[in-house]
Amino acid sequence: MLLEKVKHLINKLGLKPHPEGGYFSEFYRSEEFIKCQPERFVGEHVYTTSIYYLLQQDNVSMFHRLKQDELWHHYVGSSVVIHIFHPEEGYQRRILGCTFEDELADYQVVVPKNTWFAAEVKDKTHFSLVGCTTAPGFDFSDWELANPEALTQQYPQHRSLIERMMITHECYLA
């Protein structure tokens, strides 16, 4: 039953494997371009983009960072644990979800720009469909996958988390 639901969402939303893990498809890309964007961006960027993002069971979104803030919002399935290494505030564990049973869960979570973060489903027997919105709009030139050794040097007390979240898990569906 779970696999059927996941297959249905993958087909309905046109989801494809994401390089950091899980599945994604772009839902929205604004048509207007930013004329004077911050210097940290390369090339033209649209105002905003939004994607669907699906994680299932042991899939993870490996540690990565973006040049812009990213807003995560929960749609259906298990809550999601987002692990954040904030440059000034250190490690933060945020729960994204919309269940009444999980009082620690927030309906939306913001990951600040230039912040290493990773995500996983809280219930390893389930899946989660979320959305991610960025402004300025996302471009793969804004995305950086973490180097596990360098991240471990920066946050040695979180070695086991980094190692667990940087393992490339095969997607369950071909």
UniProtKB/TrEMBL annotation:
Q: Which UniProt keywords apply?
A: Plasmid
- Please name the InterPro entries in this protein's record: Cupin_DUF985 (IPR009327), RmlC-like_jellyroll (IPR014710), RmlC_Cupin_sf (IPR011051), YML079W-like (IPR039935)
**A Pfam family reported for this protein in Swiss-Prot or TrEMBL:** Cupin_5
User: Which parts of the sequence belong to the DUF985 domain?
Assistant: 8-146
Under what name is this protein listed? Answer: DUF985 domain-containing protein
> What organism is the protein native to?
Vibrio aquimaris
